[in-house]
Design goal:
Length: 199
């Protein structure tokens, strides 16, 4: 399979601005769709009341520009940001980032609106996205990079059976201080072992 076909799945499907409801996967009460311009207002709505460990949001500037950038990345086979829809509501987003086709690796990022935490939504969404990455995109290694002090975020890869491979010290500059980055990873060979995943 070519890398391009691999990145867009076995159907070779590509996204352009006319495609609607680009579904990555559906699992139980969750749906994961590539973010589209029509989602901009809902994404901005998610930002209201948002809290995070270091108060970071996933983009600066306008939601529309962020979504356009995500679609461009998708069309050039460099990953995407997708909305996580829970019971019809946009609950959060997951990102497929730093896609390396040669090495068949990528990173996953995630965030949830404050009202949607504590329900297992991100764990289940990330699990579904990993299935998609390994089975449809033919990737081999998935990483999650986390601030080691962000306990809720570290719990996601730990719950899914990732291995913690180390901590990159003072990897990130937050504007007023440096922060470490923990690297978690799972390999295709590990993921496909029945006991590897949290159920
Ligand atoms: C990181 C973040 C997404 C984690 O959210 P979360 O709600 O803890 O994660 P999940 O949706 O997987 O839910 C897990 C919680 O639901 C519970 N849960 C309920 N049903 C569950 C199920 N079926 N599967 C897994 N967990 C379930 C778990 O016990 C856990 O609760 P606990 O923390 O009290 O033990 C959220 O804190 C966030 O958005 N933070 C800000 C952004 C951020 O830090 N992003 C990470 C950057 S890498």
């Amino acid at each position: 399979m070519s890398y391009q076909a691999a990145m867009h799945g076995s159907t070779g499907c590509r996204l352009d601005s006319t495609v609607t409801n680009m579904l990555i996967c559906r699992v139980d009460d969750l749906e994961i769709h590539i973010l589209e311009p029509k989602d901009a207002a809902k994404l901005e709505g998610l930002k209201q009341g948002y809290t995070s460990y270091r108060n970071e949001w996933i983009y600066n500037g306008k939601a529309e520009d962020f979504i356009t950038g995500s679609l461009q990345r998708f069309n050039s086979n460099q990953g995407f940001w997708a909305g996580v829809w829970w019971k019809g509501q946009l609950a959060g987003v997951v990102g497929l980032n730093e896609v390396n086709h040669w090495n068949r690796s990528a990173n996953i990022d995630y965030m949830l609106g404050a009202a949607f935490r504590g329900k297992g939504i991100v764990t289940r969404a990330v699990k579904a996205l990993i299935d998609y990455c390994l089975d449809q995109l033919n990737l081999n290694r998935i990483e999650i990079h986390v601030d080691p002090e962000n306990v809720k975020s570290c719990a996601v890869p730990e719950r899914l059976g990732f291995k913690k491979e180390g901590v990159l010290r003072q990897k990130i500059f937050y504007g007023d201080s440096f922060g470490d980055k923990a690297i978690y990873a799972v390999l295709s060979s590990e993921w496909h072992k029945p006991a590897a995943k949290a159920k």
